[in-house]
Amino acid sequence: MEKLYEGKAKIVYQTENPNHVIIYFKDEATAFNAQKKDIIEGKGILNNKISSIFFTLLNQAGVKTHFIKQISDREMLAYKTKIIPIEVVVRNLATGSIVKRLGIPEKTEFNPSLIEFYYKNDALGDPIICYEHVLVMKLATEEDVKTIKEMALKVNQILRDFLIKHDIILVDFKLEFGKLDDGTIVVADEISPDTCRFWDAKTGERMDKDRFRLNLGDLAKYYQEVLERIEK
């Protein structure tokens, strides 16, 4: 198959169907704009399975995604999309970069949930941008931004309600969106412990990539724990 794209965590291949791609999940772990790297055996398998569960949940709830089906431990079949170069971060509790940037106390609850935009550009370090930047840089239209925000908040509510039933707090997460050939905006990329912050609702233990960022260890163990809980 023709390789269309290779990123830090995934490879995208063209299929015989021009509208379908296969996404292969790698075991690479990266942080701080790829300044920190490692191989975590089995991480790609776990992220593929977790993402497949979340995408299936969203599709069933009426949120359009690029996901069609999981086809192997490491691969999913998805609709081919043109990615909108904006990373959308939804925050329910303050932690990570927003605490450092703004001095907001750790674990401050955002009600309503906070949405931030980041320019998807590795060379620039994916900088935070505002709504006006999106329009001036022609990254998306006003209507696109409205749709993206509405979809992001709906994804947040669906995932929060689902995860808390499994004793997991959805602290924050990153979404990417793409457009199908007909212009329909869909949730794309992945939804996994690589792109979300998950805290154990009972112990507060981190169950996501912060274990790698902060040198807490046992990353694969906690990803496995997330998978086992949401499979029930």
What does this structure look like?
This protein is of the alpha+beta class and 232 residues long. The protein folds into two domains: 77 residues, Phosphorylase Kinase, domain 1 (2-Layer Sandwich); 135 residues, D-amino Acid Aminotransferase, Chain A, domain 1 (2-Layer Sandwich). The model has no long low-confidence stretch (mean pLDDT 97). Pathway: Purine metabolism; IMP biosynthesis via de novo pathway; 5-amino-1-(5-phospho-D-ribosyl)imidazole-4-carboxamide from 5-amino-1-(5-phospho-D-ribosyl)imidazole-4-carboxylate: step 1/2.
Structure keywords:
2 domains; alpha+beta; D-amino Acid Aminotransferase, Chain A, domain 1; 34% strand; 30% helix; 232 residues
Summarize the helices and strands and which ones pair or pack:
Elements: E1 3-6, E2 10-14, E3 20-25, E4 28-31, E5 36-39, H1 43-60, E6 67-70, E7 75-79, E8 82-93, H2 97-102, E9 109-119, E10 128-129, H3 131-136, H4 142-164, E11 168-179, E12 185-188, E13 196-200, H5 210-213, H6 219-231
Antiparallel strand pairs: 1-2, 2-3, 3-7, 4-5, 6-7, 8-9, 8-11, 9-10, 11-12, 11-13
Helix pairs in contact: 1-6
Please tally the helical runs, counting DSSP H or I stretches of 4 or more residues. Answer: 6
Q: Which CATH class of the largest domain?
A: Alpha Beta
Low-confidence segments, given as residue ranges, are none
Mean pLDDT: 97
- The percent range for helix content is 25-40%
Q: Give the ordered list of helices and strands.
A: EEEEEHEEEHEEHHEEEHH
Number of strands: 13
- Radius of gyration using CA atoms only: 17 Å
Structural class: alpha+beta
CATH topology of the largest domain: the name is D-amino Acid Aminotransferase, Chain A, domain 1
Q: What form results from the Cα inertia axes? A: globular
Oligomer: single chain
Number of domains: 2
CATH architecture of the largest domain: 2-Layer Sandwich
Largest sheet: 6 strands, antiparallel
| Measured distance between first and last alpha carbons | 35 Å
